[in-house]
Design goal:
128 residues; Glutaredoxin; globular; alpha+beta; 5-stranded mixed β-sheet; binds FE2/S2 (inorganic) cluster
């Protein structure tokens, strides 16, 4: 496999990845691994997507209904080790790991944590 060209020009990097110019504050990972999916991982992911997109917070392509200048990156991820107490949700750079998250909890995490900066303690497992 050929190695990709290593790009050093910032303007070229920004052209190829416009998200580099977005005022991103946080990244939210939602686990859709096997165990979390069995207790609603996809539904939790869908609810974060819906709420963040409606509020214009989800960074992403306009063609996907997202905001290129959004403050939150939403990412689906695989298992992080809380398999028996999912759905696992992580918020970075805060280092907050939530467990037992259900779709109805997404609005509270968005409003309290992502918008106001207050961790939702009833769902928090650990803070890194
Ligand atoms: S499957 Fe989600 S933490 Fe393991």
């Amino acid at each position: 496999m050929p190695k990709p060209k290593f790009i050093t020009d910032r303007q070229e990097l920004e052209k190829l990845a416009p998200m580099l110019n977005a005022p991103i504050k946080r990244q939210v990972f939602v686990c859709t691994g096997k165990s979390c999916s069995a207790v609603g991982g996809q539904e939790v992911m869908a609810e974060f997507d819906r709420i963040l997109t409606e509020k214009g917070l989800r960074q992403g392509k306009e063609s996907k209904g997202r905001n290129p200048m959004g403050e939150v990156v939403l990412t689906e991820c695989g298992s992080i080790g809380f398999c028996s107490i999912g759905v696992a949700v992580m918020v970075y750079p805060d280092g907050t790991m939530y467990g037992q998250v259900q779709p109805e909890d997404a609005a509270e995490i968005v409003e309290e944590h992502l918008e106001k900066g207050s961790v939702v303690e009833r769902l928090e497992l650990i803070r890194l």
